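Work Package 4 report. The design task specified in the project plan requires that, given a folded chain encoded as structure tokens, an amino acid be chosen for each position. We show below one input record used in the internal validation round.
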């Protein structure tokens, strides 16, 4: 299966490089130079922006190695290109600026498909789906979303939960942190009354915190799709990433990663 995926992706790379242009006749990023695909294939190095403190998407373990759901995707992408992968730690707020300044070739860091984001960054086809949930201490009297009024609710800066708190829960006191780990610590220490995060992150919080926390029994907020992020204007690179995700999502490797980190099979929605 994996060899078949590599062969299909390699064939696409040859076609893309041979054409060297987008559907509009542009070459490379915004018609200003060679595609990132060309650079990665020539240098045999792929630089990926990932989380280092946002389980299960990406964390740096005690051995100083990156691991997680998104890290699996980055390794598979680099493998398909015959390249070594170099990880660069990012945060919710710094993801898009890293792309714009060329510090990374691609962002694989739980980037939700928001319309406003698609105006400044090229979004691939989805590689995951999620929603947003609220976690509270087990003994909390918060039972519904309405109970968040007047309460301190943690979220990471620049994230979907931060946007939800601003737009849908203006009466809540949003406490924004730079990293998911900081939000979790704020909840654990009692600095905040609740925490809003994605379904994947909440699943990891429940595993680590056990009976000390509970999730509000309410529908997930803002069901959404999650994509890789690439720099605007590089259609050749975007085409390759889309083809990679399409093949990867139907592979055994994708299903193994989904089950390991999220406890479920790859959803039919993104196959």
């Amino acid at each position: 299966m994996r060899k078949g995926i590599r062969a299909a992706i390699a064939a696409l790379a040859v076609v893309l490089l041979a054409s060297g242009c987008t559907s509009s006749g542009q070459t490379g990023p915004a018609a200003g130079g060679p595609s990132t695909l060309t650079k990665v294939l020539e240098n045999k190095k792929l630089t990926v922006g990932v989380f280092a403190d946002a389980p299960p998407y990406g964390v740096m373990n005690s051995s100083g190695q990156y691991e997680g759901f998104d890290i699996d995707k980055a390794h598979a992408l680099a493998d398909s290109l015959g390249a070594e992968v170099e990880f660069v730690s990012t945060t919710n707020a710094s993801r898009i600026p890293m792309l714009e300044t060329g510090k990374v070739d691609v962002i694989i860091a739980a980037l939700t498909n928001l319309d406003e984001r698609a105006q400044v960054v090229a979004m691939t086809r989805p590689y995951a789906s999620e929603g947003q949930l609220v976690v509270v201490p087990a003994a909390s009297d918060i039972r519904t979303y309405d109970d968040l009024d007047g309460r301190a609710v943690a979220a990471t800066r620049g994230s979907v939960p931060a946007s939800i708190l601003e737009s849908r829960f203006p009466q809540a006191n949003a406490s924004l942190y730079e990293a998911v780990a900081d939000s979790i610590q704020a909840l654990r220490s009692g600095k905040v009354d609740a925490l809003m995060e994605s379904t994947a992150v909440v699943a990891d919080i429940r595993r680590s915190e056990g009976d000390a926390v509970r999730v509000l029994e309410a529908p997930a907020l803002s069901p959404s799709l999650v994509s890789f992020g690439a720099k605007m204007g590089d259609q050749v690179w975007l085409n390759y990433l889309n083809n990679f995700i399409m093949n990867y999502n139907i592979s055994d490797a994708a299903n193994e990663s989904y089950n390991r980190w999220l406890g479920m099979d790859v959803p039919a929605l993104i196959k």
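Residues 2-19 form the longest helix (18 residues). Validation will be extended to a larger panel in the next phase.
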